[in-house]
Amino acid sequence: MDQSLPPFYYQARIMFRFSNSLVNATRGTGRMSVMRNARSAVQARQYSVPTKSAQSSNTALYLSLGGAAGLGLWYAMGGMNGDLRSKLSEVRADDGEFALNKDEFRSFKLKEIQPYNHDSSVYVFELPDNKKSGLTVCSCLVVRGAGDEPKDDNGKPVIRPYTPINPPDSRGELELLIKHYPQGKMTQYLKDLKVGDELKLKGPNPKFPYKANEFNEIGLIAGGAGVTPIWQLVQEISSNPEDKTKVTILYANKSKEDILLAEKWSQIEKDSRFKIVHFLDNAPSGWSGETGYISKEAVQKYLPSTDLGEKVKVFVCGPPGQMKAISGPKKSMTDQGPLVGALADAGYSAEQVYKF
Ligand SMILES: Cc1cc2nc3c(=O)[nH]c(=O)nc-3n(C[C@H](O)[C@H](O)[C@H](O)COP(=O)(O)OP(=O)(O)OC[C@H]3O[C@@H](n4cnc5c(N)ncnc54)[C@H](O)[C@@H]3O)c2cc1C
């Protein structure tokens, strides 16, 4: 606590946060740096062949009443001076409403579309008033169309999760790196969007509450566009020099052209905490990474020892076929389902694995 500030400052801060959440809870509607440089969905892949090694509300009420009493007393004593007023406005700027809301879809304007490679693009959305998105590590958001939105076979709106690739504390912009699938309901809809169009976003949807140094070692397994939640975690660790976690990333793609965030991975490799191994189905000649799918043998070769117990965690995010072969699918958004596949065969326990 900053001793130069009166206790009422902190009460006011709590009061401000509480009133903010009240405003959020009662509001019906709302509004809404680019990564300049990022397989056919219907093509089924088999992921299990071995690798060819190439190689509460009451508490809030009491706090608010206490805060109100403190504020009243404080005003009776003369209110705030200029210094304190500017400190409070800093608090407002920092703690103010985030652009996204976890309970309601808000519309956001598409500011820029940057083609990334043959089937992926970065969609840059404007966050009004230079706000932060409100996402945390690890969390994602969900997307639905605005206006003439895509519907599923039962006539219900199509809603899909995506993970922004710019840091969660970025202001004013939110970047989604999205791979288009020829038969994809959402991604084909997104492909037709133009700059200036709107899309509805809702979040954050919390995934795993990452804490620096909670684990000694982390393994990250990604396939194709499943790399974005992995990237969110990598960004978080790499931006924190105090985080000593060792991270090994196994990233699988069809061909070299499909590797997303390639330029980021070559930067990350310069940091001794990170090791990245790329796997390609179709490797070009002279390829120095692995060829084939991520198998039990690859897991045993590269990922941290299962003997680390609760000090090791492996995170997995990939297309359905890869999830099935590596860890088994999630049962639902809240049920991770049993651990099967390459990770289970390599000796990992369900507690040591998190499926995005
Ligand atoms: C936590 C989380 C974060 C995600 N973040 C991103 C992200 O940042 N960027 C991104 O591009 N995607 C991301 N995804 C995937 C995304 O949510 C959609 O699944 C994807 O965009 C396809 O949606 P669609 O409606 O176009 O395809 P659908 O209509 O759902 O599917 C069309 C066809 O494609 C197949 N298919 C669906 N998804 C895949 C896939 N991933 N790989 C191969 N085949 C597939 C289906 O089996 C079907 O045959 C994320 C998924 C999760 C769970």
How much of the polypeptide forms β-strand, as a percent range?
15-25%
Structural class: alpha/beta
Q: How far is it from the N-terminal to the C-terminal residue, by CA?
A: 36 Å
The total of beta strands comes to 12
* Helix/strand order: HHHEEEEEHEEHEHEEHEHHE
Strand order of the largest sheet: 4-3-6-1-2-5
Task: Summarize it.
By secondary structure, this protein is an alpha/beta fold.
Structure notes:
By secondary structure, the protein is α/β, with parallel strands linked by helices. The chain has helices at 7-26, 57-76, 82-95, 185-191, 227-238, 262-268, 296-302, 320-326, 341-345; strands spanning 106-115, 120-126, 139-145, 160-162, 173-179, 198-206, 217-223, 246-253, 274-280, 290-291, 312-317, 353-355. The strands form two sheets. Strands 4-3-6-1-2-5 form a six-stranded antiparallel sheet. Strands 10-9-8-7-11-12 form a six-stranded parallel sheet, with helices on both faces. The protein binds flavin-adenine dinucleotide (FAD). Flavin-adenine dinucleotide binds at residues 41-42, 140, 158, 160-163, 176-179, 181, 183-187, 224-225, 228-229, 319-320, 356. Residues 41-42, 140, 158, 160-163, 176-179, 181, 183-187, 224-225, 228-229, 319-320, 356 line the site of flavin-adenine dinucleotide.
